[in-house]
Amino acid sequence: MKQTLPILGLLMLVAALTWAFVDRLSEGDSTASAKNSESPPVPVMVGPVERGPITLRRTFSGTLEASAEFVAAPKIGGRLQRLGVDLGDTVQRGQIIAWLDDAELVQAVHQAEAELAVAKANFTEAENGFEIAERYMQRAEKLSQDGVTSDSQLDEARAQLLASEARVAVRKASITRAEAALESVRIRRSYASVQADWVEGNDERIVARRLVDEGGMVSPNSALFSIVDLDPLVAVLEVPERDYAHLAIGLRATLTTDGHPGRVFDGQVARIAPVFRSSTRQARVELLVPNADLALKPGMFVRATLELERIEETLIIPFDAPTKRAGVMGVFVLDPAGEVVHWRPVETGVRDGERVQVHGEDLGTMVVTLGQELCDEGARVRVAHSGSTDESSAAPSPSDPR
Question: What are the CA-CA distances from residue 335 to residues 25, 107, 152, 231, 356 (Å)?
Fold first, then answer.
């Protein structure tokens, strides 16, 4: 029994030492595990938080049209004898641009002139007859006063005078009628010369289309030429409902076209349709585009950028910064030390290219623009500069002993 006690004590001491060793090993494993579980910094890119003005811009596609078009057409029918202009020619206001065969009209003028001459001769004859009848009346009155002639002879003389006076009036009216007929024929003859007589706009325009050939028969009011005004032009856009409320007459715009790459043209809103197309839910908007050098042409496709709204003072961040977490829009803000990011909810507003307006609090000076999907609240980060990669940072330098 006395020998058993020392052996039992020895066993208990070994067990205690073994337990202490196992506990030390367990503590070391948990420390290593904790160290291994710590995540490495997330590589991110950041952008600045700014305060200043921002402009809401929208770009719409459209087509250029002539600001005014005059369709030259004859007022009478006939054979087209000669054309005075052709496609692309410049036309002055009032210029004669086509002639119809007017041989019959010239003859009609001669006939009307002859009828006027006959009417004037008849008038002269009637005037002479009136003078004779007037003298006869004067003699009859004198003889009647002397008792030489009877009352019936006096009445006859008076009737002749009245008849002569009536004939003078009729012949005078015939002259007026003949003069009107001659003027009408002359006007009709003038219609054989087709004029470019537009009313408003510039005095100079350009022939856009020629629709007839010389020698052909044309009817009254059939189109001969389309003559257009190219300065200014009209850019026709289709604007959706979301942007319609921002439109206003006089709003400035910049236009570009594939026909003149790198060149920007100015314009402004001139007309806004008061209704939307039921098929597209878009409204027609017309811009006036100055075109002094005639570089732009009707039918060209253009892209027009309109400044719909300008906010003078607001908070602005890069457009790539906002992201969503649990359905909430926000940004990750970089702390002053540049090592940790924090989540801040925001509301976005006007966008201008790669910049966007935001409403939020405590946004600091820098926000994450790339790598947000790997970030959470309080995450450690490593800010990567544009053009840097993990491989380049990990690669040894020439002096590195590695």
Answer: 39, 100, 134, 57, 21
